[in-house]
Amino acid sequence: MSKYYNSEFYSKAIEVANIEWEILVIITDDKWREIIYTWYDIEEKTSQSVYINKCLLGWFIKKIPENVLIIWFWWGAFAKYLEDHIKNINITWIDIDKTMFEIAKKELFVKSDNFIVSDALLALKELVKNNLKYDLVLLDIYGWDGEVPDYIKDIEFFEYVKSVLKDDWVVSVNFADYYIWNLKHDKTHENLVNIFGKNFSQFLAWTNDRWNVIWIYNLDKKYSSDDYINKYTEHVQKWRISFDENIIAGF
Length: 251
Prior knowledge:
Blueprint: E1 2-5, E2 14-19, E3 22-28, E4 34-41, E5 46-47, H1 50-55, H2 57-60, E6 67-71, H3 77-85, E7 90-95, H4 98-107, E8 115-117, H5 120-129, E9 134-139, H6 155-163, E10 165-176, H7 177-181, H8 188-196, E11 201-207, E12 210-217, H9 225-239, H10 245-248
Parallel strand pairs: 6-7, 6-9, 7-8, 9-10
Antiparallel strand pairs: 1-2, 2-3, 3-4, 4-5, 10-12, 11-12
Helix pairs in contact: 5-6, 6-8
């Protein structure tokens, strides 16, 4: 059974389907092509969207995060996973589309109410002004065709991201397939390295006929795939959370 939500940012209604506790969110363009498709299993507390799982590897490589900032909230799958697996997690959401918060609350039952409906850069400036800091920043912003908005690529934007990130923590960045094909002509990664240093991890994720590229920055050293798998296994046991094979699948 599907429900539909209208958003001022999409010409077609956003479809939200609940199939045996799996929540699917589908956005289509004017030609009825699926441009964004992702899902979360409320009962199993897992995400089948590979890019979400790989972005979350950032906090498994560290200790338990207490305060997380999600930039481009996108209906709440990141937040839901964190709430399901970490007790007393504090999450701040930033998204320009208030419909995403509505979907998160009504369909995923996300608990956090600390949301900011705003342009990402303006919101970051306000957080810096208030001297707020986060253990983990998840950055997941791009447009209809996967292209990253110009201001998201700038040094200034990443400087603000670093200003709200605690020194010993990480930022996870997800870009769609547009970025992979335009990597040679784009300075986004170069700017990120200039701000966060040369220690980073990169993962390619294949979801519903589309590629995503995920980076984890501000690391203290270079981590191998085995390092991530071992850290994940160690922390699952230490924190007594459910093992989720999707997190470390596909290395």
